[in-house]
Amino acid sequence: MPTGRSVGLLCLLLVPAALPAQAPARRSSMRPAVGAEVGYSRTDLVGGDAQRVESRQGALTGLYLQTPLRGPLFLRSEILFALKGGRTQATVEGGGTAELDIGLAYLELPLLLRTGVTRGRFRPMVFAGPAPSLQIGCDLQVIVPNAPVRASCDETNVPPFRDFDVGMVAGGGLEVRWPASALALEARYTAGLRSVLDGVDVRNRAFGVVLALTF
Fold it and tell me: I want to staple 131 with a disulfide (CB 3.0 to 4.6 A). Which of 33, 102, 110, 173 is the partner?
């Protein structure tokens, strides 16, 4: 029959053997992770010289790398394809006005600091950071009944839109965790800090709703 001393010795031998099996589960949420995101946005142009500008539909899609820093802080670097711009009124030949749709396509590179709840299946979080971007496309569409006219900005006589923009991103959302992945619904606001045209104050602005899947 085992003595009290032999039982105690057996427990000491079993505890270290059990610890390695639990350690990976604790470390898994603190490893770098990649993800993909896709979403819908409403964009417009704001500023002192942005007169009679209305919002237009946009889009967000891209990839990100999320790196743990310390405690609940994460650094999230993103590569996004973002459609921005707005709608305004333009004078057409022969008199009268028509809606002018301004479509600006960007390769956006947000660098976000993210924090939130790190335990449990449902985890609220917030994030913010700068978002430099490169313009990779620009087109204009004059919306007239039965005869819309579309052209690239280079084919028109409008002032050239700047190739580089920078903005600030802020937002938050709710993440649902599984052992090896996570799905988050996020809302974000992007405010342009730089005019998209020389000599005037016209800046990008966007409100977006995004689904983000982390692997």
Answer: 110
